[in-house]
Design a protein that fits this description.
Elements (H helix, E strand, L loop, with lengths): L3 E8 L3 H16 L4 E9 L3 H11 L3 E3 L2 H6 L5 E4 L6 H10 L3 E4 L7 H14 L3 E3 L7 H11 L6 E9 L15 H4 L3 H17 L3 E10 L4 E6 L11 E8 L5 E8 L4 E7 L8 E8 L2 E6 L5 E6 L9 E5 L21 H16 L11 H20 L3 E2 L5
Parallel strand pairs: 1-2, 1-4, 2-3, 4-5, 5-6, 7-12
Antiparallel strand pairs: 7-13, 8-11, 8-17, 9-10, 11-12, 13-14, 14-15, 15-16
Length: 395
């Protein structure tokens, strides 16, 4: 029998557009999902560069008519890779047209808009997904399974950091430094990921922000001229005029989890010497796990129930098919995977759900991602008002 197919429309052709395109290109080759992806249409604003983008990445069609793409009867799944400020209007129209939606994080620049999108998705009865792709690292998914199996016991401590250094003072005023376009800075960009990972791995919710600091170190940047040519800051050119930075450069906060654990989170794009360092440590009564993305194929595990003479940190190479999530689709043991594979793993789980099957590990939908956005909001409120904030205050 022929498999069900899912016609995908990609909106956006920047850094995330490349990452998502690569995932849709690879997913049918390495996996056999319940529904096969068809790379139907790439949609963007610059026709000339869009045509080259579509041809390079294998999109069958390209269009600069966003409304027509979102309303097309031929499209089953809309995949949004645009700046955060564009999500609300695009998702609203896509849901109104009856489309399933996969959206980059965070959902919206404002919590009220994110809440409305959750309600619209529920009313539309559409399948929704948010690209918290680090859940799809086999090591992170393995940590989730260990905690769920009771291997860690009651959780006492959670520590998480996400450190980058690309936002140097000489980097011009790109959209990520503009609150109207991004919503927030390193907080929504980076803290969002580690909040989601820790919620996912622990299976618990954050109930209180005990205290927070938000800081903008570089108050003004040169106005950006032209477009970027690849990564976060590659190819940026600056003019003579300057503009105000309206987002944070760093946010740190303390938190409490629903099971009683205490936690710390830190995110910055100005931690000199760290290019993309992030991870977590989780400590409980029976053991502990820790993960660092720079060694993304490895999970460190401490079994406190073992004989005391042999207790110690064990490094698990999470590449064994049949034992570690997603590993069977890729390479032999210790033939490691990289950043892009987490996107392909998520594309697989999206297609599994659209094909009527279960994902390998839980996928974040709009309602799930909204809980992470509530935490983001509470942390900024705590920093601004210099007080503890209970999540019950942030509806």
């Amino acid at each position: 029998m022929a498999r069900k197919t899912v016609n995908v429309a990609l909106i956006g052709q920047g850094f995330m557009g490349r990452a998502h395109s690569n995932a849709w290109t690879q997913v049918n080759r390495f996996f056999r999902p319940a529904a096969a992806a068809v790379m139907h249409t790439a949609c963007g604003r610059n026709r000339a560069s869009l045509e080259d983008f579509a041809a390079r990445w294998g999109w069958r069609n390209c269009s600069t008519n966003l409304r027509a793409v979102l309303r097309s009867d031929e499209i089953d799944l809309v995949d949004l890779c645009t700046p955060t400020a564009m999500h609300y209007a695009m998702v609203t129209e896509a849901l109104a047209a009856g489309k399933n939606v996969a959206c980059e994080k965070p959902l919206a620049t404002k919590l009220d808009q994110a809440r409305e999108l959750v309600a619209l998705a529920r009313k539309a009865k559409a399948r929704t997904f948010v690209w918290y792709n680090y859940r799809r690292c086999p090591a992170v998914a393995t940590a989730h399974q260990l905690v769920r199996a009771g291997k860690i016991g009651r959780i006492y401590h959670v520590r998480a950091v996400y450190l980058q250094d690309w936002a140097k003072p000489e980097i011009p005023l790109a959209w990520r430094f503009d609150r109207k376009l991004a919503g927030s800075g390193s907080h929504g960009d980076l803290n969002a990921h580690i909040i989601d990972m820790c919620r996912f791995v622990t299976g618990e919710e954050i109930t209180e922000i005990a205290g927070a600091i938000a800081e903008t170190f570089v108050k003004e940047r040169s106005i950006l001229t032209g477009e970027t040519t690849g990564g976060l800051s590659l190819g940026m050119k600056k003019g003579a005029r300057k503009g105000k930075v309206t987002v944070d450069d760093a946010v740190l906060f303390l938190a409490r989890f629903s099971g009683g654990a205490v936690a710390s989170f830190e995110a910055t794009r100005m931690a000199t010497g760290y290019q993309n360092y992030h991870g977590f440590e989780i400590h409980g009564t029976k053991g502990a796990v820790r993960f660092k993305f720079e060694r993304m194929n490895e999970l460190e595990y401490y079994d406190a129930t073992a004989d005391r003479a042999v207790q110690g940190w064990t490094t698990i190479m999470c590449t064994h098919g049949g034992c570690h999530p997603y590993a069977e689709a890729w390479w032999p043991d210790a033939h490691v995977i990289g950043y892009e594979h987490a996107f392909t793993n998520q594309a697989y789980d999206i297609l599994q759900v659209l094909g009527g099957k279960k994902p390998v590990v839980p996928l974040p939908d709009f309602a799930d991602a909204y809980e992470t956005q509530r935490v983001l909001e509470a942390a900024l409120l705590s920093a601004a008002q210099k007080r503890p904030v209970k999540l019950s205050e942030v509806k």
